[in-house]
Write a structure and sequence with these properties.
With 130 residues, this protein is mostly helical. The chain has four helices and no strands. It has one domain. Helix 1 runs antiparallel to helix 4, helix 2 packs parallel to helix 4 and helix 3 runs antiparallel to helix 4. The two termini are 13 Å apart.
Length: 130
């Protein structure tokens, strides 16, 4: 039961608290940089939740390299997305805000994995299987 609770707490911090903090920071940065997200606003928040769950999962499972592959694909696609003007405003500011959101998501994903690791006595990889 302790394992399950540790995972619940880790994912709650990663996805839940991570969403609250990251969303507020992103809204503030977007406002400060005069970035008009229009009707686009809800999608990044939902993607962020899924990403933080992914980051926590791959860190707990010991496959941290998958984060690099995901970021490579996302940043590459994000660069093209910025050039096409999906969001109005300064492309440099848009891209920097995008990168800040990614860093925050990785940090919260790592925090969730760290909590799971600590609560399980320094063991995390494949805890659900063993």
């Amino acid at each position: 039961m302790q394992r399950i609770l540790s995972f619940m707490l880790g994912y709650l911090i990663s996805a839940g608290l991570g969403h609250i903090v990251t969303s507020r920071v992103m809204r503030k940065l977007s406002k400060d940089c005069k970035i008009d997200r229009g009707n686009y606003e809800p999608l990044p928040g939902k993607l962020g939740i899924l990403e933080r769950i992914l980051y926590t999962s791959v860190l707990v499972a010991g496959f941290k390299e998958l984060i690099a592959f995901w970021l490579l694909a996302k940043v590459g696609a994000g660069w093209i997305w910025q050039i096409r003007g999906a969001v109005k405003g300064d492309p440099g500011a848009n891209y920097n805000v995008f990168l800040i959101g990614n860093v925050l998501s990785i940090l919260f994903g790592g925090l969730g994995a760290l909590i799971i690791w600590i609560l399980n006595g320094g063991k995390a990889a494949f805890l659900l299987l063993g």
